[in-house]
Amino acid sequence: MQSGGGTDSSSSGAAAAYKGLRSSRSTHVMGEINVTPLVDVVLVLLLVFMVTAPMMSRGIDVSLPVANQPKNEPEDRVTVSINAQERVYVADRPIAMPLLEEHIKGLMSGRTAKVVYLRADEKIRYGKVIEVVDRLKRGGVEQIGFVYVLPGEKTK
Prior knowledge:
The chain is α/β, with parallel strands linked by helices. The protein has a domain of about 70 residues: Nucleotidyltransferase, domain 5, CATH 3.30.420.270. About 40% of the residues lie in helices and about 15% in strands. The chain is built from 4 helices and 5 strands; from the N terminus they run H-H-E-E-E-H-E-H-E. Helix 4 links the parallel strand 4 and strand 5. Helix 3 packs across helix 4. It is elongated and about 120 Å long.
């Protein structure tokens, strides 16, 4: 051994080997969780549920009979309009109030859905609308749909 703070070659080799062993080990703790296996398990579970869900909601097996009804073609809509001057129109043709009931009876004959759509100007009297509704009901109309616009659709 040498004096004066130096080390000999054999002791320096051992210290270097010890230091090398120490530095090869990891001294810090890994703080991250490996989520790859978790994702794999979740995807397999999702696949299992996607395959089995349709089988669980299956109904009772029933052999349904075939109906001999022809397909109903959609009928033209009957629209009755009342403008701001309280004039009544069926479709786009003006009609006198006394003739409205008979005209509607003719239109409703042979129809399965006895529906009329009523378009009335917002400025007309309420009584006029009720008078038209009353004549429509007497003309054989079962349902009256009131046509309106939503606030964002109104244009002037």
